Amino acid sequence: MRRPASIEEGQDVTNKTQQFASDNYAGICPEAWAAMAEANRDSAPAYGEDSWTERASNAFRALFGTDCEVFFAFNGTAANSLALAALCQSYHSVICAASAHVETDECGAPEFFSNGSKLLVAASEDGKLTPEAIRSLATSRSDIHFPKSRVVTITQPTETGRVYTVEEIRAIAAVCRDLGLKLHMDGARFAHACATLGCEPADITWRAGVDVLCFGGTKNGMAVGEAILFFDPALAQDFDYRCKQAGQLASKMRFLAAPWVGMLESGAWLRNAVHANAIATLLADRIGDLPGVDIVFPVEANALFLRAPDPLLQGLRDRGWRFYSFIGGAARFMFAWDADPAIVEALAADIIDLALVETMTAA
Ligand SMILES: *Cc1c(COP(=O)(O)O)cnc(C)c1O
Fold this sequence. Notes:
363 residues; alpha/beta; Aspartate Aminotransferase, domain 1; Aspartate Aminotransferase, domain 2; 2 domains; 7-stranded mixed β-sheet; 10 strands; binds pyridoxal-5'-phosphate
């Protein structure tokens, strides 16, 4: 696979150790790496006053076709939490799906950074919110004793790899407008959703009614970094202070910004996601019809969730495959920009092999 030469040196080029437990196992893609190296040639002003930061911000504006306000944070937890905090007062609430990363995987950071805004969770099979669920939660209470609904956050794609369609996002935005709620999108894998839908980034964000987007770079091939895009500049007021107070103002900002220049200007952000999605589909094609094995959620992005008998999953572990089973209640395989088709074929062969053993034992 494409790898920066300096990373490849001294490594097993067959990359046999590649695993798919998380898309964060992947390294840095060549385009991001090259831009980092380029930014490292010279010194530059600190705290975002440099030309790389300006160039990255402009690349986002060009990609989204709008004059949005752009900020950079180190990770997704910070990006989500600070964005939500910017949209809320402490007495407000944020509506999300029960499986949303902000609820299950951010250690209370959204509540912490908003000084206590409550997350109101909606039950959801696939991690998607619906207009009905939002309306029902937002209108369940309107008395002074309950936090006032203020924001809706949706994850695109969801934690279980489902992709909201343009129409679904528009319908959610319409309910938000109707109820006076702001709409935030957790786009830790935003590129993967764009790759699936084949749409312009604008079509599933500001044009559909999204106010703030957290655009993930880490899971798309960068070492670190998420961008926060405010499509309504008024909402971004003082956000720079909020980032600084939260420890999210990089002093050498150019190293957070430069990889974005590499990703956006070269188109790698989309190519990487197209590849990752295709690999998830490849595995789904290989194992889709196996007896005793279910692909739990439709494969719409770069994740595949496998439900299988315990001995089969144990067999996979014994053969050295790593995966999580605490997300989505099934074994999760997650593919990144560098997922090697040959290694995925080997994984598929092991799943097929173990499934046959299972059926024979059962018979
Ligand atoms: C990975 C991820 C994030 C960001 O997580 P960090 O570890 O804080 O970078 C946010 N939302 C979702 C849905 C994610 O999968």
